[in-house]
Amino acid sequence: MKRAPDRGRPYTIVGIALLALMLFPVYWMVNASLQPTGSTLQGGWFPFHPDPSGYATALRDQGRNLVTSLVVALGSVALSLGLAAPAAYALARFNLRGTNLVLLGILITQMVPGIVVANALYSAYNELGLLNSYLGLILADSTAGIPFAIIIMCSFMRSIPREIIEAARVDGAGRLRVFRSVVLPVSTNALITAAVFTFLFTWSDFLFALTLTTTETVRPITLGVYQYIGAHTTDWNAIMATTVMASVPAAVLLVVAQRYVATAATDGATK
Amino acid sequence: MISPARPPARRIAALLTGTIVLALAATGCGGRTGAGSATGKVASITALDYYTDEPEHTQWGEMLTACGKTAGVKVEQTSVPGASLTPKVLQQASSRTLPDLLMLDNPDLQQIAQTGALTPLDEYGIDSSGYAEGILSAGTYKGELYGLAPNVSTIALFYNKDMLARAGVAVPRTWDELKAAAAELTRPGRYGIAVDANATFEGTWQFLPFLWSNGGDEKQLDTPQAAQALQLWVDLVKSGSMSKSVLNWTQADVHDQFVAGRTAMMINGPWRIPALNQDRNLHWGVAPIPVPRSGQTPVTPLGGEVWTVPQSPSKARQEKAAQVLTCLNDSSNMLTLAKQHFTVPSRTATAGRYAEQVPSMTAFAKSVEGARARTSELGAEWPKAATGIYTAIQSALTGEQTPEEALRHAQQIATSS
Amino acid sequence: MRSRSRPVADLSPILPRGTGQDDSAVAAGGRAAPRARLGERSAQWMFIVPAAAYLLLFFGYPIVKNVVMSFQQYTATTFYTGAAPFVGLQNYSDILSSDLFPKTLLTTVLFTAGSITGQFVLGLAFALFFRRRFPLGGVLRSLLLLPWLLPLVVSGTTWKWMLDPDTGVVNAALRSLHLSSSGIPWLTGTSQALLSVILINIWVGIPFNTAILYGGLQNIPPHVYEAAKLDGAGPLASFRHVTWPLLRPTVSVVLVLGVVYTVKVLDIILVVTGGGPADATETIATQSYELSFQQFDFGRGAAMSNVLIVISLAFAIVYLRADRRARTV
Asked: CA of B80: which chain A residue's CA is closest?
């Protein structure tokens, strides 16, 4: 009998080929970002003479927008976890009447098109002075993160052994203390998963950036890229350098938090 | 916190804030203000424009500062990108935080004036004599003048001198010559001509010289004259002399294609000249847009930004803003701005002097004289006609409809409610 | 489909299952006085109230506001004067009777159906492929998630540039392989542009479909296959009679969720084609955006997006039914 790895080798080759095909656009983006200025209208198949000038231009023009995206994304992670964790705990562990109503609400959120939220928020934000503000974007962007975080954490907290919580309660810990010092620590994995995804949702948000900001003061990187395409078409390498920089968080999180990303994709949807 | 019942409360709050600001200004807390009379001194005013690109931004900033000095105020300039100017203005209008001096692209003026956010300029005794007819009509809404432009521009035909010389092609003057020249100049990897035919008002703007020069009119789009003009663009694409990608190109893209040598001719505006001059290897020339038959004069659309004085609780600030506006429109300032940006002074007499001083701008100065404002016939209804026109361009160039069908549809869009 | 924006499919994990997870029995020490229980209850509610309030403000309020706006003449002028007169069903009759609407609706349907079919079929193929164990399989499978994690604007921008008819790499490849001499007008032909946005959306959606279907496949116990093998079933028969029936619940979740997410896709279309050329890629979602934020006609924009909600809701009902059926099976 042959060794197992040998039998799998053709599959590995096919797998790599398939992946190369799927990830070609990502390669092409990186390739374009390293081409010298101006020549990219044609562009070569390989950046034989990598030119970092695209990145220099991109950093100069879009550096601030990257920071904006980072601030908004982190703010949204904090808000989403802060609101979703207690709610998830309550939905998972307390038998409250009305729980079903909240769950129905969460289900409905999945069907509401972002444009509906944006439409109404524009006029409300206008009255409240929240257009072009970090707070406004964080609040709006969390519409993707909060329902998702509730569901991920709820399904996890349901699986926490009952004994742990009971032991703490018998020791006289209040509800809040049980939550803080027992439930949260054992739920670290779910918290990280929820945080990673909330971060990515907000980082990639385009709709709210497009509709709820009208000036340069608070401009996320996604909108920066979009407006770049319209205004600076000679600098395709700079545009592509910006898109590469905007992709960094996704790539980094895929590598660093791979475990959480992969399980959320499957668990969140099918468990 | 967000409730539909909020607006009235908010408005009261805004009103209160306005009153407080006024009170502060009156009591001298608002900076270097004098004694609190109705005509009390104003230390600074705000201005909003869309000149975000350098060197334009700085040049306008300097001009505003200089004009502020003559009026005795400091002008605080804010620039937002063109696409976000209208949203910004609407947002400020609703929160009553409009700037004291506001720049608008001329076809947008009537739409904004319609909302009631602007004040008529004759309240300030501004002299509007000697201006070209087109630009005055663009600044007028319901018989009142709301905005004045120091300088104006239009579009023309730019060509690559080397490419034309090598192909032995003369600069086209008529539509037939244009078609022949474009075909002659087309090579693998290079098109004869590029225009902006995208689905925005920019696409409409580039089509207008062809429509108008042939006797077409935005009031009635389903005419043979309009169809012939559209057919010209369709023919250019069909024969391969013009890329089908014009459907997606902006004027900036068209410029890039020209600079990259991927097109031998293009339709564009003089504000591209500083960028064209940066490339030393590019030898370009400019000519009027070709006309249907030789001997005709092209009718081009009038471009340019008008300055307005929005509604404000402070009469004194409005007076100051009006003084700055008058200064911007002063003949010598017009001339300075025109030279900086390769545009044309909007007073006919000044434009004549300018053409003498800057001969390369003669083609533009001439075109501007007869240039037509987009809103002169339809006023605030223009955006609908403009939408109809670019929709027709898109349908015809993709081959979805014949020019006649496309324009019939355009006429429906233009006249719908 | 942008399932990625909320990869949440089945609520069954959080539906109360009566597994005795309520810890109030412990808290109340067996039998509690009614008042203490009341205090206990309100203390419990405090965990939910912030999130519930958020959901009400950012989903409940917009829905209500949107419905109200759709009956108003809510335009640029409204922002200055504050006046938004009620116009009854005028906005709805305007958008539904416009000659663009049937075309937009058809485009929305084609876009959704095309995207879902493509990403499901390919996603299933990938999932079946990765089910086999082979060296680097796990690594390759997680790298496959990258297209799904990238911001849509980034993917759209890259694809737009790759598909450029004159200078894009796709046409360059087709020309050098002599598959097409003039190249395909990916972004400038009306039917090709629609095909392009569908293809891009499929590319974005494959990883998500693969991940979920892979999870579903993993849940099928291996002994079922062994039994089928003993009965002499080939790979095709075993897929038809074992894999597919057991995967059905997962499949219905993937498909219906896919529809709900895909009908509202906006980013890809705005970035790649902007709805053009000649409105060929204009969907209900992009129309709603344009009405509200390009033309500042918030009344009609709201009406248009309500049409979108109705479509989503119709599919949601299908989803709930399918889900219930799947669970009772």
From this structure: A215
Range of the domain at B385: 156-301+375-415
In a shared domain, residues B326 and B409: no
Distance from CA of B58 to the nearest CA of A (A): 18
The interface predicted TM-score of the complex, written ipTM, equals 0.88
Q: Report the CATH number at residue A222.
A: 1.10.3720.10
Tell me the one-letter amino acid at B404: E
A90 to C302: CB separation less than 8 angstroms, yes or no: no
A109 located within any domain? yes
pLDDT tens string B147-188: 999 999 889 999 999 999 999 999 999 999 999 999 999 998
- Residue B20 is assigned to a structural domain of this protein: no
Residues B84 and B174 in one domain: no
Most B-contacting residue of A119, A127, A217 (CB-CB within 10 A), to test interface: A127
- How many structural domains are present in chain C? 1
Contacts of B4 in chain C (CB under 8 A): 64-65, 68
In a domain, A44, yes or no: no
Q: Is the pLDDT of residue C45 over 90?
A: no
Helix residue ranges, H only, B122-160:
133-138
The single residue listed with the structure tokens 């600098």 is: A235
Q: How far is CA A212 from CA A117, B5, B262, B357, in A?
A: 11, 21, 38, 47
Q: Is A206 helix (H, G, I), strand (E, B) or coil?
A: coil
Same domain, B254 and B392: yes
In a domain, A42, yes or no: no
In terms of Cα–Cα distance, which of B276, B311, B315 is closest to B26? Answer: B315
DSSP 3-state assignment of A49? coil
**C-alpha distance from residue C114 to each of B412, C118, C199, C281 (Å):** 32, 6, 8, 13
Give the CATH number, domain containing residue B74.
3.40.190.10
Residue C177 lies in a domain: yes
Residues of B in contact with C68 (CB under 8 A): 4
Chain A residues within 8 A of B259 when measuring between CB atoms: 234
Which of C76, C80, C166 is nearest residue B245 as measured by Cβ atoms?
A: C166
CB-closest option in C82, C94, C190 to B400: C190
Determine whether the interchain pair B250/A230 forms a contact, defined as Cβ–Cβ distance below 8 Å.
yes
In a domain, C47, yes or no: no
Question: How far is Cα C29 from Cα C26, in angstroms, rounded to an integer?
Answer: 5
How many structural domains compose chain A? 1
Residue of A35 and B305 predicted with greater confidence: B305
Give yes or no: residues B351 and B387 share one domain.
Answer: no
Other C-beta atoms lying within 10 Å of the C-beta of residue C167: 21
Is residue B100 a contact partner of residue B321, using CB atoms and an 8 Å limit?
yes
> Are the beta carbons of A129 and B95 separated by less than 8 Å?
yes
Interface membership of B262 toward C (CB under 8 Å): yes
CB contact under 8 A, A207 and C267: yes
CB contact under 8 A, C22 and A95: yes
Strand runs labelled E in A57-182: none
Contacting chains of C (3 CB pairs or more, <8 Å) are A, B
Domain assignment of residue A162, given as a range: 59-270
At residue C27 the predicted structure's pLDDT band, cuts being 50, 70 and 90, is: very low
What are the chain A neighbours of B88 within 8 Å (beta carbons)?
A: 214-215
Q: Are residues B312 and B275 in the same domain?
A: no
User: Could you say which residues of chain B have pLDDT below 70?
Assistant: 1-40, 54, 83, 91, 94-95, 417
